[in-house]
Each structure stands twice: as C-alpha cells, then as structure tokens.
Write a structure and sequence with these properties.
Structural class: alpha/beta
Distance between the termini: 31 Å
Largest sheet: 8 strands, mixed
CATH superfamily of the largest domain: Periplasmic binding protein-like II
CATH architecture of the largest domain: 3-Layer(aba) Sandwich
Number of domains: 2
CATH topology of the largest domain: D-Maltodextrin-Binding Protein, domain 2
Oligomer: single chain
Number of helices: 10
Strand content: 15-25%
Number of strands: 13
Length: about 290
C-alpha cells in the first residue's frame, strides 16, 4: 500500500504575531499515531488542492486522488467545470457566485502566517511597484486592500519566476516559495500579511477553503473531506515528524502555531471584513460565501 504520509507527487492539471495563548487554542492536541487512509474513494468527484506544506493536514490519505496545482490554476479548472471541488484561495468564492464553501474547514491564521509575505527594500510608503507571485489570488487582494487602507496604491506586476524574487525591490510571495525566501539570507524587510491583517482587525484571516460546485450533488464528497481533515488533525504529530519539508522544529512551529484549520465564528467575521474591504477598494462584485455542512 502507498504510504499516505509521504509527500504527494505532483500531477500536472488537463498564501505583531497573535498572542500565543489564542493561537494555541486553534489546534487540538494530536496523538502520535500513524495515520490510516480513510476508507472509500473520491470517485466520481474530481478534486484539486495546492501542493503546499500547509495543506497536508486537510488532504491526509487523499494525496493519490487529487489534482495538485497552483491556486490560480485550480480556480481556472473549477470555472471550466474540470474539477468538482478544490481547496482554493478564498477570493475565488467571494468573486464567483457558483460555489458553496464546506463549513468548518479552512486554512487560516490568527496573526503571523509566515507563508504570505511582502518582501520590500523601500519603506511601504515609497513603494511604486510590487512584483506578485502569479500563483497567488487571495494574497494579491489582501495586499491590495491592506495598502489601500493606508492610502497606498502601487502597481502590481507579475513575478516572471521565483529565481528573480530576491532581485525585486518589492515582491509578494505565498506558500512554500515564501517559506523558502524567508529562510534564505535576507536583504529585504518582511511584512507578514497575517500579522498586518490581525493588527488592523483583531480577527483571523482565511486564506483558503474547500470550494464545491453548487450544481453537483456532493454530500459523499463533503463527508470524505471532513474525514481527511479529522485524520490530519488527529495525527498532526505524525505529519510533523515524518514530512521532509524544512526541519522538524520549523514544521512544528508552522503547522501548530502559525496555521489553523477551523472555520468558526471569528473566521467568518474575518471573511466578512475582507469581503467588505474588497468591495470598498475594488470594482468587481463581491458575493457573500454560502456555507454547507
């Protein structure tokens, strides 16, 4: 049997720190048991996820059945009905009124997130251009509204490739590339967008959710995704111990303190605040998310 704890292979398809006490409450205590793959297949549903470390606890045991792609690519596949569900940037459900959100599950932070950051050399007030990770959706909009609330409106330019990130005076990075950048020698100031959001709102920020096509009956799929989340959180110690990305101390800190995986009242308040700011500073319609159990 394939080892469900091994890093998933990627298949090409056709994003001040919060108080420790509050962040510690976001994750249940996890036993060190080795995870067992949940029973049953995702079939006939076509499901996608991003190939980042922070998604591992939500896709535990499903890795061999998922399409892995960037957030932008997953959104494209959903719009073309080539996927029935995907773990996508939250702006995809705020800007597109055709998905339901699986209630209770998210990738979120209460303060510092580390994997969504703006690296800049000039002061924020002097930024004229920001190069943006082309994989990003939510983080670009988050940065846009955070800067707009400060009266700042730089030009946003696609980052040609990650190798050029360190040469940019201001660059927005997400996911594992952001973590790689953060752990390398730095010549930039780092503005953690999770920290910036919390400082301005005192609320969590939700980066990604399970988006489900509204026209597809999917109760069995919702059940399987919940099982995967439960398995991932129940065996989080095992995931931290056996994954190979970075080092164990970093994985422990990142997956237990910086990221949390529930979508509750505070997270929904954060979503509502984000939606209001998107409407305030943008021109596209913004839709209230529809949650399903």
């Amino acid at each position: 049997m394939d080892d469900p704890t091994a890093p998933p292979p990627l298949r090409l398809a056709p994003t001040p720190p919060a108080p420790t006490q509050r962040r510690a409450q976001t994750e249940p205590a996890a036993p060190s048991a080795s995870p067992q793959t949940p029973e049953g297949s995702l079939a006939p549903f076509r499901v996608g996820s991003v190939p980042y470390l922070n998604t591992v606890p939500l896709t535990c045991g499903l890795e061999q059945q998922l399409v892995f792609a960037t957030p932008a690519r997953l959104a494209e596949l959903l719009r073309r009905d080539e996927l029935d569900a995907a773990l996508v940037s939250v702006t995809e459900v705020l800007f597109t009124n055709r998905y339901d959100v699986l209630d209770g599950i998210a990738i979120a932070s209460l303060g510092e997130v580390q994997s969504v950051l703006l690296a800049h050399r000039p002061p924020l007030a002097e930024l004229s251009e920001v190069h943006c990770d082309t994989a990003s959706l939510t983080s670009v909009n988050l940065l846009r509204v955070l800067l707009a609330e400060r009266g700042l409106h730089p030009t946003f330019t696609p980052l040609p490739n990650y190798a050029q990130a360190s040469a940019c005076d201001a660059v927005l990075l997400i996911g594992d590339p952001a973590l790689d950048f953060l752990r390398a020698p730095l010549t930039h100031t780092i503005w953690d967008l999770g920290t910036a959001w919390f400082e301005g709102t005192q609320l969590p920020f939700v980066y990604a959710v399970w988006a489900l096509r509204r026209d597809v009956p999917n109760e069995p799929l919702r059940r399987r995704l919940r099982q995967a989340r439960d398995l991932g959180l129940d065996t989080l110690d095992h995931i931290i111990r056996t994954r190979t990305e970075y080092d164990r101390d970093f994985r422990q800190d990142y997956l237990r303190w910086h990221i949390h995986y529930h979508l509750g009242t505070d997270e929904k308040r954060g979503l509502a605040r984000f939606a209001a700011l998107l409407a305030k500073h943008g021109s596209a319609p913004v839709y209230a998310p529809v949650f399903v159990e």
